[in-house]
What does this fold into?
Amino acid sequence: MRRSLYREYRPQTFDELVGQAHVARTLKNAVETGTVAHAYVFAGPRGTGKTSTARILAKALNCTGTPDAPRTQPTAHPCGICEQCRAIAESMSLDVIEMDAASNRSIDDIRDLRDRVAYAPVEGRFKVYIIDEVHMLTREAFNALLKTLEEPPGNVVFVLATTEPHKVPETILSRCQRFDFRRPQIHDIVRLLARIVESENERPDEDRGGPPIEIQEAALLEIARHSQGGFRDAIGTLEKLASYSEGVIRPGDVLEALGVTQTDLLFEVTDICMDRQTGEALRFVQRLANEGVDYPQFIRDLIRHLRQVFLLQHLEEAADDDAALRVLGQTVELDDELTRRLLPQARQMHPRELVRMIETFGQAQRDIKDGLDPRLQLELALVKITRPQVEASAAALEERLRRLEASLGPTRHQREAAHVGPAAGPAAQAAGPAAQAAAARAAVAGTAAPPQTADEAPQTADEAAQKAPAVMQPDASPPLTIDRVKRAWELVLQHVQTVNVGLYASLRDARPSALAGDRVTVTMPSDFALRRAQEGANVDVLATAFAATLGRPLQAEFVLGESRDEARGPATAPPETPLDYTETIKLTKQMLDAEELDEP
Ligand SMILES: [Zn+2]
It folds into this structure.
């Protein structure tokens, strides 16, 4: 059996920390100048090296050096072989106390810790308390911890590690020096994985616990791409593959192990959408079904793919600048090779078309979360995208029904009666001039869309956006409704994410719930998220994101939601959605002359 590669290849010195140069530099400097703080907060995503760094700090403080180079003071370069260093690396040191706040979160645990803090270090110079996931502590435990931080003994250092610093009380944060651990870049992870494979393969077989690891570089890249910027996940995937794969590990093996969609499929379905091949799209879904692909996962991966295309369009003008590309790579997990492959799609696709695709798949994703059939939602989304006239008609129909209901009152009988007419005839005719105008507009937009050569393609997204209004009739654009805002929400969030990650984090689980003029009500999942969203210029950032996505800078008003279910609205016949799901499907199917595939 293989040993844990993550444990084995944990960084042991500040210099081995990958992707956290700013943290390593500052800590080394503090150790060397004797200005180590009493308490640190290490904040950042999981698997980015927070507790490893805490241990390195502990070693730096307590290292006694080698016989020929003894250390009587803390050192920025712990030797790694003295008793102190070894004990810390193996979690055996009596002076380094690691505590997981997820399982020791009560006041008694912290009281116990406080009592022990009073004693001098057993063997080393410093006692180091590492509290992992510190945000999990109870309020009482935080208060007890605060007392300790207020009167820290001279030879104690606290490291509070957390993936959710916003849940740590301000009173605690203000007494700590804070470091934010960044997600490492893709190529950092690839380099680290390659180094691990090399070191593993240099070992004797019996030492390794298995045959040498044979893995293609492209497979390493695939692992890195899907590790969400966490070393631990990346190394964990490598370990899993090394244990279970036979022969050379290829990119396909990685995707299979992770259960993610083959990149080729994402490119293919995007091409199908761009070419508006409805039949091909539905056959594609059938193929996914035959291959046992998980639809929600597929949609998630597809949205990620489209998001990368989208961001690439917007960043292309800055793409001659390497630094900008690196920033891009970090935010969307893009690497050079993927960028090269994505560029043709980014150049061919009309930005509006792309936005509509992301909106549509985002809606499908939400509908699936709300319990609707995944396959049908995927098919519906693909049909809407490949036949924009269908969606335009449906939207017009919906609008007409809404007005009808507003004047008649929403009885079940009337709704059903209203459906019979439109559903019977050809869509555009039944839906009236509004739909015809919308369909015509869609057709115009369609012809104006993807030019086939790179030369003709809009050079930048901005240029394209400037060209677009000449084609689109402003008066023909659909009125802004809360439904449209909801559909665009995913995209608004992605815009926010590129500007302000903190705000994105607090909005991630929020939902727009009502619209009045230019004011949109956003239902927040927690009081904390609500306060966070209201801070500083956040409302303006959100308004800009709305403007970029919907063309109007909506002002957000945040309210606290009772529960996530409530944000979805009442379960029975909500007046704002006159067409329920089955009716919409029925209607859409009747409007289509596409072949229908058998459903379970
Ligand atoms: Zn040492």
Notes: Residues 409-476, 563-579 have pLDDT under 50 and may be disordered.
